[in-house]
Amino acid sequence: MTAGPGSSAVVDERLLRTSPLRKLLGRPELGSVVGALAVFLFFAVVADSFLRVTSFGTVLYAASIIGIMAAPVALLMIGGEFDLSAGVMVTTSALVSSMFSYQMTANVWVGVLVSLLVTLAIGAFNGFMLTRTKLPSFIITLGTFLMLTGLNLGFTKLISGTVSTKTIGNMEGFPSARKLFASYWTVGGVELKVTLLWWAGLVAVATWILLRTRFGNWIFAVGGGADAARAVGVPVVRTKIGLYLGVAFAAWVSGQHLLFSYDVVQSGEGVGNELIYIIAAVIGGCLITGGYGSAIGSAVGAFIFGMTSKGIVYAEWNPDWFKFFLGAMLLLATLLNAWVRKRAEATT
Hints:
Blueprint: H1 20-25, H2 30-46, H3 53-78, H4 86-104, H5 108-133, H6 137-160, H7 174-182, E1 184-187, E2 190-193, H8 195-212, H9 214-224, H10 226-231, H11 236-262, H12 273-283, H13 295-314, H14 322-346
């Protein structure tokens, strides 16, 4: 468009170039990266063993256990929803796989596949109830959390007679399943778990979905405002159910790792972990209100969790302080993320 004499030129804002600094300030995970560097330097100073090569594998393992769940939880939060049943869903997945394999005296892979179907059904139930009832996800998933907690304990005691499952380590298919879900290898003296590959794969897929697919645009749109998204043709119901299915799939992966790492599962495990997944996503830059965040940020948040949980041990502090540090990091990360967003908006 050409401007006439004495008139100002009209420039399409889509053609404006964005400086690298402005792009950097606009990244959701910027605050978490700064926080991760601060946590690393802190424990490097106060804990001598923190910088040992063998400690690195331990930190990565602790981070991967949280990171596997934090990635889909981050996508769900970007979509404007929560899942308070995610922690016990992991245990449910492991219990179903173990008890079905043991009671049916089948190949453990049969139990693994049945567990996948059951876990996905739980995720679909959460999404369906949310979209049909219009109740807040906090209420829906809190109900699922309570039901699963009771079912995990009730069924385990009914079938096994105790609060833990029977051993399935001698059953057919166990070695191959352990190789997929709970194997490890040693590189340069560092023991690396297969959960690192699951974690990296889920973060990569989640990032690709958010940044390169139509579904990713739907997630941001739904998180920004479901009614507005619906008005422009976004399939809100499908999007939210899909997000809950993603959390369920990650819970299945985590549950199988839990089972094939220890052979038996305690029915009371997983309670409270859902808050850690949410904390990792928030530290990574996700907003509680939805519409903003990244999967990479959730990975950084999980890494901060791994460094903190193990750094306190290496510093030989009382582990009771862990929750204090986790809460402090949550507040500091949230404040830092808010500051970064304001700076980014100020430069646009």
